[in-house]
Amino acid sequence: MTSRTDEALGYEQARDELIEVVRRLEAGGTTLEESLALWERGEELAQVCRRWLEGARARLDAALAEEETGGAGSADEG
């Protein structure tokens, strides 16, 4: 399950599945074992979302840093 989560899920897929996991946990009616499995899955999905968001933040930071330094090949040249 972890390899599928880490390698194949996009942000929106992980987020949507995480929402469903939380909904099921909040609804109750599951056994302790089922609740633990859902919790573990939720932790995995949260980590996937966190990685996607950290990657997006890094890309934005890099773009802003490039803009501040004038960036190579900017429209102002030539």
Structure write-up:
The protein is an all-alpha fold and 78 residues long. The longest helix is centred in the middle third of the chain and has 37 residues. The chain starts with a helix and ends in a 10-residue tail after the last helix. The model has no long low-confidence stretch (mean pLDDT 88).
Number of helices: 3
Q: Bin the strand percentage.
A: under 5%
Cα separation of the termini: 53 Å
**Please, what is the average pLDDT?**
88
Radius of gyration: 19 Å
E-strand count: 0
The largest β sheet comes out as:
none
| Shape designation | rod-shaped
Identify low-pLDDT runs: none
Q: What are the secondary-structure elements, in order, as H or E?
A: HHH
Content-based structural category? mainly alpha
Q: Percent helix among the residues?
A: over 70%
What's the helix and strand layout?
Blueprint lengths: L1 H7 L2 H17 L4 H37 L10
Helix pairs in contact: 2-3
Structure summarized in a few sentences:
The protein has 78 residues and is mainly alpha-helical. Helix content is 78%, strand content 0%.
Task: Name its key features.
3 helices, 78% helix, 78 residues, mainly alpha, single chain
